[in-house]
Amino acid sequence: MRVILLIILNIIICVIFLLGIDLINWVCPLAKQDVAIGITFRFGAVVLFVSLLIALLINLLLSRRKIYFFIPYLICFAYWISGVQAMPYRSWAYMFLSFVLIGVYEWFLIRYNKRGNRFSDSKRMEKNDKDTLKWSAQRAIESNLRPNVVAVTLGVNNKLLHIIAYVNSLPVEEDYEMVNDIAGEIICDFPDQIHRTKEECIQVNYNDTPNIKKLDVWITIKEI
Fold it and tell me: Which of helix, strand or coil describes residue 151?
């Protein structure tokens, strides 16, 4: 439901973009406008839709590292810069309009997620808080997962994020870096609720059933 609402917002923004193009053409009409130019204008809305969709996928599936959010801007820039020679002033105007709408959309994504990702400061996490933390952890794990990871467990207590990664080999430096990256992305989702971290990487074997510690959230990657 949440994704559908964001896609609908994407479509609304593209409609606004088309109306903005029509307004610019009405205020400053072209001396000569053929079918090719008209198609270029309309296809710009398709490029904007794809750019906003990529922004949504980045926000949902990858991470919120700021570098990723420049990708939609680069797509629109590459499209409109190709028409600068034919329409120098108009291409820059449409590019600027695209950037403004992308910025509004990404601002809404960040605000929407912050509203949905807040959990209480109580020492015992409620079910909704656990679901929110699990959603954030799954996304962070997907973008940083190493092949030897078996499971990940984590919990928050008194603004301390405790995260344990269970691996099926002797932990190496890359494993600890992975846990640190996962913790960093989760903190980005909850800057007000998490101030400290405790990170562990523990080896487990398939031949036995070790006494595995499970925290508030348990995410299984492979069967132990």
Answer: strand
* DSSP line for 154-184: EEEETTEEEEEEEESS---HHHHHHHHHHHH
Q: How far apart are CA 24 and CA 97, in angstroms?
A: 11
With beta carbons less than 8 A apart as the criterion, state whether 194 and 161 touch: yes
pLDDT tens digits along 144-155: 888 999 899 998
> Is 34 exposed, middle or buried (CB count within 10 Å of its CB: 0-12, 13-18, 19+)?
exposed
C-alpha to C-alpha distance for 204 and 82, rounded to whole angstroms: 55
pLDDT at 116 over 80: no
**Which of 127, 120, 143, 159 has the alpha carbon at shortest distance from 65?**
143
The residue written with tokens 């926000």 in the block is 59
Q: What is the CA radius of gyration of the chain?
A: 23
**95 vs 79: CA distance, rounded Å:** 9
Buried b (16+ CB within 10 A) or exposed e, 161-185: bbbbbbbbeebeeebeebbeebbeb
Pairwise CA distance, residues 29 & 51, whole Å: 27
List the one residue out of 35, 96, 103 whose CA is nearest residue 66: 103
Euclidean distance between CA atoms 109 and 114, whole angstroms:
9
Burial class of residue 8 in the structure, from the number of CB atoms within 10 Å of its CB (0-12 exposed, 13-18 middle, 19+ buried) = exposed
What are the distances in angstroms from CA 33 to CA 28, 29, 43, 84, 87?
Answer: 12, 9, 15, 15, 11
Give pLDDT tens digits for 54-67.
Answer: 888 877 665 555 66
